[in-house]
Design the sequence.
């Protein structure tokens, strides 16, 4: 599932993911387990209220690599 981040449309980062969720443009949200709760909690609540699937990833480094970026990522979303 996480491999789709390299081949499909995506957004990375808390602000961009929140914006995409609010515009109903998100299929799945990926959240890094080692990300700070203050960054991920609001996104997880939004996903829950809008019935968007959340996939947990072990580390921010793994999520960043899956997105094809050279930095760690706390959250990312696969777009519809």
Sequence:
């Amino acid at each position: 599932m996480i491999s789709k981040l390299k081949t499909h449309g995506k957004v990375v980062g808390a602000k961009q993911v929140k914006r995409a969720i609010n515009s109903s443009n998100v299929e799945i949200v990926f959240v890094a387990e080692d990300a700070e709760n203050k960054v991920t909690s609001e996104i997880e609540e939004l996903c829950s209220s809008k019935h968007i699937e959340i996939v947990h990833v072990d580390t921010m480094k793994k999520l960043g690599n899956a997105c094809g970026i050279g930095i760690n990522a706390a959250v990312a979303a696969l777009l519809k």
